[in-house]
Amino acid sequence: MEGHQRNLSLYERFNARVVGVSRDDVTTLKYWAKSLDLTFPILSNVTGFLGGYFQVKPEPGTENYPIFGRRTVIIDKKGIIRYVRDGSPDFKDILLFLKKLNQEGGKP
Amino acid sequence: MKKHLGMFLCFVWVGMMLSACATTETTQKPYKVSPQGTVIWNDEFEFKPPPPGWKLIQVEVGGEFGFGFLRAEPGQFPSQSMFVYDEEPFGCSTKFEDREVEFFKRYLWTTALNIDMQILEKTKVNVLGGEGLAVVAEGKDPVKKEKARSKVVFGKRGDRVVAFYLTQWRHIDGTYDPSAFEIFDKFVASFKFLKKSFYETL
Is A74 exposed, middle or buried (CB count within 10 Å of its CB: 0-12, 13-18, 19+)? Predict the structure, then answer.
């Protein structure tokens, strides 16, 4: 998340906005965002339904209380998912993709 | 005929061995040494390396820094010094004073949960061809009976803040060795960018 905060001005240049999603509750996220000086919104996905929305499969053995791996998703202005990568975000790859998308006119 | 064929195969085999060695060499080393004795790292950075006794360390993926140097030192565990160059130091601010506060919220958090780093001095410095901020801090971990002295130098690459930092670890009763800090200062003073960063070319 800190990496995204560092890149906020670049995201704005490419007409993109960043939103974080976490399984933590709102109180925990507020404290956490403050401690890292994050200024973008973070959604509290306590029930985990957003994981299914972005087609992330729960870690094996966590079906009753699903735990999701990290996934980066870029959605264009039409609501179409254009980019999906699992694991730690590759910020350079994300920025290059956003630049390309912005040049195509398909603003995220 | 058989003799000629044997010699030909021998040449081919030797050629294959040499080419294999050359391939291994180029894929393993991200640096070369210039005629002036400086290190050219990935054709991107140039710096004066530390003297013998310092071991190169680098993180390929998911690390907290790019590369640096480690020296094991005499004395009770954990006597050692390590300094690194970090393109993405903890924090987000582009102002040095704010970044320093953000940085020290998380500095050493993976290795020393109980350490309480105290800032001893802050000095404006010239680094990387521009203004920078040097911070010296010390902390003790009474649980592990360890202590650390650090020097962090913040500078700019384009609009973004980068950092160099040295951490010297000692047993809580040990004494710090200033020679590592002098070597670190020479490393920082010699450091140059040979090309624009990824972010500057976006």
Answer: middle
Please state whether the peptide bond connecting residue B78 to the residue before it is cis, i.e. omega within 30 degrees of 0. Answer: yes
Number of H helices, E strands in chain A: 5, 4
Q: How far apart are CA A48 and CA A68, in angstroms?
A: 8
**Is B151:B144 a contact under the CB 8 Å cutoff?**
no
**pTM: predicted TM-score of the whole model, two decimal places:** 0.81
Which one of A8, A37, A92 has the shortest CB-CB distance to B102?
A: A37
Cα A80 to Cα A11, A57, A61, A75, B56: the distances in Å are: 18, 19, 30, 5, 45
Say if CB B53 and CB B71 are below 8 A apart: yes
- Interface contact flag, A2 B160, Cβ < 8 Å: no
Tokens at A5, concatenated = 């905060």
- The helix (run of H) or strand (run of E) holding residue A31 is helix A26-35
Q: Which of B81, B107, B99, B97 is nearest to B162 (CA)?
A: B99
> How does strand A20-22 pair with strand A42-44?
parallel
Contacts of A35 in chain B (CB under 8 A): 105
Residues forming a β-bridge with A42: A20
Strand intervals (E) in B142-182: 146-157, 160-171
* Chain A residues lying within 8 Å of B104, measured CB to CB: none
ipTM above 0.90, yes or no: no
Residue of A40, A2, A12 lying closest to A99 (CA atoms): A12
Q: What is the pLDDT of residues A16-63, one digit of tens each?
A: 999 999 989 999 999 999 988 899 999 998 888 888 788 787 888 887
**Structure-token pair, residue B55:** 């071991």
Contact A107, A101 (CB under 8 A): yes
